[in-house]
Amino acid sequence: MLSAAAEGRQGKDGPRWQTPPAEVERVAGLSPTGEPLRCLRLPDILETRPVGTTMLLVREGANRWYRMTFQEPCRWLNLNRVVSFRTTNGMICAGDLADVTDLVARIRFPACVLGPFEPIRRADVFPR
Questions:
Q1: What phi and psi, each to the nearest 5 degrees, are found at residue 26?
Q2: CA-to-CA distance for 110 and 90, rounded, in angstroms?
Q3: pLDDT tens figures, 28-56
Q4: What element of type H or E holds 123?
Q5: Which bin fits 70, alpha (ψ -120 to 50), beta or left (φ > 0)?
Q6: What pLDDT band is residue 9 in, cutting at 50, 70 and 90?
Q7: DSSP 8-state assignment for residue 35
Q8: HSE, side-chain direction, 13 A CA sphere, residue 39
Q9: Beta-strand runs (E) in 10-96
Q10: What is the spatial distance between Cα 103 and Cα 80, in angstroms, rounded to a whole number?
């Protein structure tokens, strides 16, 4: 049984800072709507959302969403950390590095390698 302190940090699907396993499976199972893109323009990216340690949901514009799967699991990634992209040309591409940073503890973790960007439907990302 969990202590009272641990119960406050633990939700029914695991710690609040982790994506629930069922959500990771749901997002991993979404069908792409087109061919994967190798690169996206960084200025066009409005939002990123981690999904487990293997994926990011990337929003470009109002209704364009992509699922990016890291080349290897990014074990430092969770909902409480920030992802920043290393780029010199304003593009982020498969094979580029992304840093994961804990802003509270001021720790920058080893970089993770980006994969391709698969277009997915907004309605599939956020089912009603």
A1: -60, -50
A2: 22
A3: 788 889 999 999 999 999 989 888 889 89
A4: helix 122-125
A5: beta
A6: very low
A7: P
A8: 10
A9: 10-11, 14-15, 39-41, 45-51, 55-60, 64-69, 82-85, 91-93
A10: 9
**Tokens for 43?**
């200025």
Residues 6+ apart with CB under 8 A from 68: 55, 56, 57, 58, 114, 115, 116, 117, 118
CA distance 12 to 31: 28
Helical spans, DSSP H, in 17-92: 21-28
Tokens representing 105? Answer: 């503890």
Query: Would you say 30 and 15 are in contact if contact means Cβ atoms under 8 Å apart?
Result: no
Residue 17: per-residue pLDDT: 57
The β-bridge partners of 109 are 100
Instruction: Look at the block and give the residue holding tokens 């690169």.
Output: 39
Entry field: residues in the chain: 128
9-30 CB burial, b ≥16 within 10 A, e <16: eeeeeeeeebbbeeebeebeee
Tokens of 45: 């990216």
* Structure-block tokens of residue 125: 């990302």
Question: Nearest CA to 92 among 113, 75, 73?
Answer: 113
